[in-house]
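lol ok so funny story. i was supposed to be doing the assay writeup but got distracted and ended up predicting the structure for this chain instead. priorities right. anyway since i did it might as well share w the group, maybe its usefull for someone
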Amino acid sequence: MPIFAPAAAPSRSELTEHLVRTRIAGDVATPRENNLSHYRKLSNGDRHYWLGLELGDRWEDEQDVLAVMAERCGVVDDPDHRSGQDTIDPEMTAGALDRAAAELRKAAEGRSRVLFATGHPGALLEMHGALAESLHEAGCEIVRVPLGTYTDDGVVVQFGGVAVLERGASLWHTHSPAPMAAVLDQLRRAGEQPPDLVVADHGWAGYAGQQGIPTVGFADCNDPALFLGEAEDTLAVAVPLDDHVTDPRFYEPLTAYLLAGARPDTE
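and the output, tada:
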């Protein structure tokens, strides 16, 4: 667990209150204009917004994308709401965390091989690291990225069992699926099997899910692809949240709630 993590997990009501207070959910910082712009670009076939998924022509209607985002993320479902505030439903976040916890619990019970990765190292690295540490203690194998995995003018490295993209001695925020593609290719070249489970975000999660790997993905309301992937059963779970609030410590109660739900004795 992170050094400053709370000793006890919050209740569901305490969690949702925290999510709203910190704007991880509720009235989030991402404006409506940005959300709709991303939905439109995805529908128009801009692969940057597909996050490693192969969506074909199934989502060419922007209103279909909005409908899924309202259903699974809690954005405002009114197509005439074009500007101003948009939302993530904290109850949907909590519900997705419960489903994610079930995937982690199954992995722990099966002593699975699990790969953790983040394109948001400035906010989510510690959360992913706490999950990796907990599953390792439960007997899972945390997949190690082969040395010399290069991609996107950078190299994939790991901190606390979490894969990230490094460029020029800095950890990079990336939506690209290329780092996950490089990791899976290097594992194959090394004679290793793919992970049994991937826990990630952005293109790391989308590409893994597209390859048929059970995947838990964390996604903001302006990143619709992972929610479409969940709707199509390409991803196991897509957790809606603001993926870069002002302080990474705000994710600690969420992490504690997720880990508590992943324990076998919570069933």
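The CA atoms of residues 184 and 194 lie 7 Å apart. The two ends are 22 Å apart (CA to CA).
back to the writeup now i swear
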